[in-house]
Amino acid sequence: MEDLLKNVDLEKRDRILNSAMKEFSKNTFQKASTNKIVEDAGISKGLLFHYFGNKEKLYKYLEFFTFKVMTDEINNELDWNNQDILVRLKEISMIKLKVFQKYPYLTDFSLLLFKDSTVEEIMHKYPDFPLKLYGQVYTHNIDYSLFKKDLDVEKALNIIKWTMEKFSDEFRKDLELGVTKFDNQSVEKEIFKYIDMLKECFYR
C-alpha cells in the first residue's frame, strides 16, 4: 500500500494517526466520527479527505501503518550484528514499547484488528504483515554455539518463538478482557522473566 502521509509533516502526521486510532478503537467503524478525528487532530475535514479520500481508506491506512511502523522501527533500531537471539528479543520488546509510547492508541487499535486471532492467524489474514522480517528475527545471523551442547537447536528456537507468541496472545487477551492494563515497565519486566528462563533452559 502507498504511504498516503509520506509527504506530511511528522508532527501533523502523528496527530492524525493518534486521533484516528483513538476514535476507531473506541467505536465501531460505522460509529467512528471523522468530525471527532479532525477536531482532535487539529485539521480540517477537507484536509483529512484530501489525504485519504474516505473513511474506509483512512481505516485501511491505519491497518497498513500498524505493521509498517513496527517493521520500520525494528529494521532501523535492531542490532542485527548481535547474534544472541534472546538479547535480540529483548531489544525488540524495548523497540515495541517505544513505539507504543509514541502512539498511545496503537495498542487499542491493534487489539481491535487482532481480536480473537492468534499470531499465526494474523500473519495469514493481513498481507502487510512483515512475514520476511518475522522469520529473520529467528534465523538471520544467529550464534548457535550459545546453545547447550547436543541440544536440538531448531526445536529450541521453535520453543522460544512459541513462547513469545503465546505471551503476546495471552497478554492481548488479558487486555481485551480488562484483566490487565498496558504498562510499559510491567510488560518489559514480564517479558524479561520469560527470556531469562529460556536462557537458563537452552544456553550453556
Tell me, what is the CATH class of the domain at 66-202? Mainly Alpha
Structural class estimated from helices and strands: mainly alpha
Uncertain regions: pLDDT < 50 for 5+ in a row? none
Radius of gyration using CA atoms only? 19 Å
Characterization of the model:
Residues 10-70 form the HTH tetR-type domain. InterPro entries: Homeodomain-like_sf (IPR009057), HTH-type_Tx_Regulator (IPR050624), HTH_TetR (IPR001647), Tet_transcr_reg_TetR-rel_C_sf (IPR036271). The chain has a domain at 66-202: Tetracycline Repressor, domain 2. Helices cover 70% and strands 0% of the residues. The protein is elongated. The protein has helices at residues 10-26, 34-41, 45-52, 55-77, 85-102, 106-114, 119-125, 131-139, 153-177, 184-202. The protein contains ten helices and no strands. It is an all-alpha fold and 204 residues long. Helix 1 (10-26) packs antiparallel against helix 2 (34-41). The mean pLDDT is 85. The longest helix is centred in the C-terminal third of the chain and has 25 residues, at 153-177.
